[in-house]
Write a structure and sequence with these properties.
The chain is an all-alpha fold. It is 74% helix and 3% strand. The chain has one domain. It has helices at residues 2-26, 31-50, 53-56, 70-92, 99-122, 127-155, 164-191; strands spanning 62-64, 192-194. Helix 1 runs antiparallel to helix 7, helix 4 (70-92) packs antiparallel against helix 5 (99-122) and helix 6 (127-155) packs antiparallel against helix 7 (164-191). Bound molecules: protoporphyrin IX containing FE.
Length: 207
């Protein structure tokens, strides 16, 4: 029972952090506060995963071979997305131009898509990971599209107008990409067994 309440609290915390990030979509928060709120959402999403019924269930270990390993991407993906968000927030606060954000977007999007596809093609038996991977795949694809629309909105001399929704959606989907990649990382770092560890675990090699 206690764990169920902890889970509800984590979900409520994630919703509150998401709303706070969303509030910054109309009028940008300063870079520090924006990163703190995006980071808070990511922490809450990890707590949502760790307090879930699936997490309390039996471990689902799988061998993590090949390069890059899922464990490697579990560390790299959330960090890359957080840097992407920092560059987006710095642009919104007119500290830098848009090029760094758009350039880093390619690496971040490819890393998130590869992470999701490796899980879907190699570890689809791991139910919680498979579900998060589907969300990450869709959210990342939508985020790049929304980014282009947000960019076009910024170019419109008479102001974003109808496209201001794209900016709001881009900020919200950006934090979702961060939160989902962080939750996936928690699962991967718990269940992915480095192939070097000669433990008798099912091989789901990916190369
Ligand atoms: C995985 C890829 C991406 C992520 C995670 C991401 C994330 C974000 C986030 C979170 C913000 C708002 C930061 C804040 O809270 O202040 C932002 C702003 C922005 N991003 Fe991205 N972004 C991505 C890709 C792109 C791409 C590909 C483009 C354009 C081609 C783009 C264009 C923009 C623009 C124009 C803004 C400023 C919005 C405004 O206030 O006008 N983003 N991005």
């Amino acid at each position: 029972m206690k764990s169920r309440w902890l889970h509800y609290l984590a979900v409520a915390g994630a919703a509150a952090a998401f709303a706070a990030v969303g509030a910054g979509a109309a009028r940008p928060w300063g870079v520090g506060l924006a990163l703190a709120l995006h980071g808070l959402f990511a922490v809450m999403m990890v707590l949502v995963a760790r307090t879930s019924r699936a997490w309390a269930g039996p471990a689902q270990p799988f061998a993590d071979g090949g390069w890059p390993s899922l464990r490697m991407m579990a560390w790299a993906a959330p960090v890359s997305v957080l840097l992407q968000i920092a560059l987006g927030s710095a642009y919104r606060n007119e500290l830098i131009g848009l090029i760094p954000h758009v350039s880093w977007a390619f690496l971040t999007a490819i890393l998130a898509l590869v992470l999701a596809l490796f899980v879907l093609t190699q570890e689809a038996r791991h139910e919680p990971l498979r579900r998060w991977a589907m969300v990450l795949l869709i959210a990342t694809g939508a985020q790049v599209l929304l980014g282009v629309l947000a960019f076009v909105a910024r170019l419109m001399p008479e102001g974003a107008g109808a496209l201001s929704g794209a900016i709001h959606a881009h900020v919200g989907t950006g934090t979702l990409v961060l939160g989902v990649s962080a939750a996936m990382s928690a699962w991967i770092l718990r269940d992915a067994v480095p192939a070097s560890a000669n433990s008798p675990v099912e091989t789901g090699h990916h190369t």
